Each structure stands twice: as C-alpha cells, then as structure tokens.
Amino acid sequence: MPKIEITIPSLIHDSDDEDEAETSDLCRVCGMGNAAMHYGCIACVGCKGFFRRALISADQLECPHENDCTVTKAVRPSRDLTSKSRRKNKMPESVAGSEASTSSGPIEKPKSKNEWIKKLTVEMRTMVMNLLNIEAKIMKGDTTCEFSKIYPLKGIDSLRDIISNPDLLKGKRTEMRYEPFRMARNNELHSIAYRRLIAAIDWVENLTGLLDFKLSIEDKISLVKNCYTPLMVFKIAIRTALITKDENVMCLCNFSYVPRNLASVFSDSYHLANGLVPRLLDELVKPYREFDLSEEELVCISAIICLNPLAKDLSTEPFDAIIELRNRITDTLFHIIKESRNSAKASEFLGKILLSLPIVTSLANTMCENLQFSQTFSRAIPLLTDLFGCFPVEPFEDEAQSNNVMDISQLALEHKNSRDAQTQTEPRAVAFLRKRRHDNVVDIEPPQQQFRLLQAPTNYYITEILDDLQVDMKLILLSLKTSEVENIASDR
C-alpha cells in the first residue's frame, strides 16, 4: 500500500474535533477544497475514493515504488484546483489556463505497437503472430530467380498435383515485393498472375493448419479457386496504398508497376484489361490510403478473404470449423483496431473495412473474366486452365464455309434429279429458293470445336466478340447462297 504523508498529529479525533475539522475546507492530502472527514482524515471526495479503492482492492493494487511513495496532488493530474474532475472541451479558458501549471492534461492513448499489443489476450497475440509469419514466409519466397524465367512451371498442370504433393513448389517461389522500381513489361503479366496463384495456394495450406478440422484435397482446391482473384485484387490495392502516394501508379508483386492508362502502353493487358486498373485505383487504393492499415490488420483481412465457408464446391463438413476460425480472426481484428486506434470508433472503422470487401469481389469477378478470356484467345497456361476451365468457342469462318458448300452441293444434286418432273407449277428459280429455304433447318447440329488465337483481337468482352462472329458468319452464308443459286439458275 502507498504511504500517505499527513501533517496532523493524529488521525483519531473525538466528536468536538470532528465538528471543528468539518469546518475546514482544505484536504490534508492534496490541498484541494471542499474537504470533509473521511476515514478519520480531512480529505476531499477524490482522496476518499482513493482510500476506498485501496481498502476494497488491497490484494489487487501493487505499489511500483515498493510501498515507499508519497501521495500528493501531483499523482492526480485529472483533477483541477476546485477538486473537480477535468472534462475535455467543457472547461472555461480562464480555468484551463490557470491550471496549466498544475496539470499535465489528458492522457493520450498509446500508439506504439509494443504498448497496445500487450493488451490483447494470449490467444489473440498467438493468432496475430501466426498470420504475420504466414505473410512473411509467402512474401519472402525460397528462390532468387526472376518471375519471367521460372513461370509458368513446367510439368505442373493441375492444382491437385500441387496440393497433394507440396514439395513440387519447393525452391520455386520467387520473392514478392510491391515496389514501383520500374514499369512492368508486357510479357511479365502472365508470370505475375501465376505467382499470385502460388501465393493463394500457400495461404490456404497454412490457414488449414490452424483449423480443428482436416480438409480434403477437393475442399482445398475449392478454397483456392474462390480466393485467388479476390486475394490478388486486395493485395495489389493495399500494397499500392501503403507504398506510394502516386494516384496514377499501381504496384505489382515483381518490383514493378503499371500506369493508369494501361491500354495505351501495353498491346495485351492480360488480366488487367477492361478498365480494371483505373477502377482499382479509384475504388480501393484511394480509400485504403485513408485507412492506413497496419501489417496486423492487413494479414487479418487476407485470412478473412481466404476463409470463405460459402465457397463453390466446398463440402458441408468443414463449414463450422471455417466459420469458427474466421470469427476468431475477425474478433482479433476488432481488438487490434480498438487498442491501436481510437477505441470509440473501432466498430465504425471495422465496418468501413468490411464494406470494402464487396468492391474487392466485384473487381475480382472482372479480373476472373479477363483471365478466362486470355486463356481462350491468348497464351494458355495449363495451371490456370485447370483453375478456370476452358471456354468453348464457336467454329470460325473456314469450317463454316466448307460445311455450307457441302450443303449447297447436295441440294444442287437433288434439284438435278428432280428436273425431269412432268408438271411445274412455278418457275425453277422460285421453286429452288423455296425448297432451299426449308432445307436450311438442320436436325443435328455439327459438333463444336475449340480454337486458339495467338493474340486477343481487342479488349472487348467475350459475348461481344461471339456476337460479331455470328453476324459475320450469317453475312458470309447469305452471300454464298446467293452466288450458288445464280450459278445453278444460269446452268438451267
């Protein structure tokens, strides 16, 4: 217990002394006014409360000076000269100015990591350290090779092979750093997408080790497919916001960047086409700069993105385990925000972060469509083909023309066999056109085939390109039909 210095000769008084003491208005401990007899001593209300807490919680209080400190008004900076608690922004300027020499002002909330992290529970601190270790391990990699020289990996064509045998990626993870050192080259974009897929696999593998349920290979594949593009979009946005203040630059994970006007610089935008870069800079990077997320908050959000219990093709058995781990990470994120930032607005700040995730999902869907388009019409990577599947495309002009010529030749032969008919009720050309119009209906459609182009024609959507192909094919068929009919009619 702290030792209290009192200048009166004794703390025990008779009734007359108590009446006389009550007339005094100065506290014998701190010198404040409006004092009265409390616990056998003339003390103010504040000192009385200190005495009471000391008596009630004697086993919980511990003196930092080995019970050899002096209790004076210097240790009570939150009270003014009138023995009233200081209220921020509610005091007259005259009173605030007069007490400036006797008070140190309101105590600010500690912002240092070493101070606020101690306020978390042991379980939360363990969770944060595990997530930070996962992020550091994935970012560091295990090789010094360049992206373009190692990716795509040869001999690895499916996610199942990697997840069932993680040693296949040993020594094949390059270091990832989002630094605007140079502008990315056009042929590096597919390597960047490939490296981010390996990072998504590593995130899922490490997070499943924190679950109380052992996931199957199919469940891990489902989580990887679900979190690949959202995690890539979030990492690009948050790292760009933390690294650079340039509003026209977006950082990539291979020490490079791409400009806002990507289409005017690169001939093939790969997974960043369809105006994805400007949208990402305006809708995510800009608000994330205002958030100024810490590394602890960043890894918690990354884990929340990966642990989606509603992922497509995910079995029902691990649902409860994924929900439980995700809730623990969310609770940890809330306490990190509460302790490291303004505790009064912790829930508001957490809400802003969670409301940004639908934007991440929307941009991830656009990136997913870009990757499917690139896998179909541009350079095909087997591992990404296994991730997204193969997009079917209608046959192009050459085969359509050959099929049409065969149909017209057959119709011409049938017309030749029927030209010796005894009765003709209408001219030959009109009859042939009428017959040809009905013969266009084909009962069995020819089998569809898949095609590849060396380079995507432009940054249009897939549906727009297919519509253009159908219109062009109809025009070609119409011209062929007209020319064949004229030739046959002239022969007759």
UniProtKB/TrEMBL annotation:
Region called Disordered, residue ranges: 76-110
Pfam families per the UniProt record, alphabetical: Hormone_recep, zf-C4
Function per UniProt: Orphan nuclear receptor.
Protein's UniProt name: Nuclear receptor domain-containing protein
Record-annotated Nuclear receptor domain positions: 24-105
PROSITE patterns associated with the record: NR_LBD, NUCLEAR_REC_DBD_2
Keywords on record: DNA-binding, Metal-binding, Nucleus, Receptor, Transcription, Transcription regulation, Zinc, Zinc-finger
Domain NR LBD: residue ranges: 123-393
GO MF, any single term: DNA-binding transcription factor activity
Classification lineage: Eukaryota, Metazoa, Ecdysozoa, Nematoda, Chromadorea
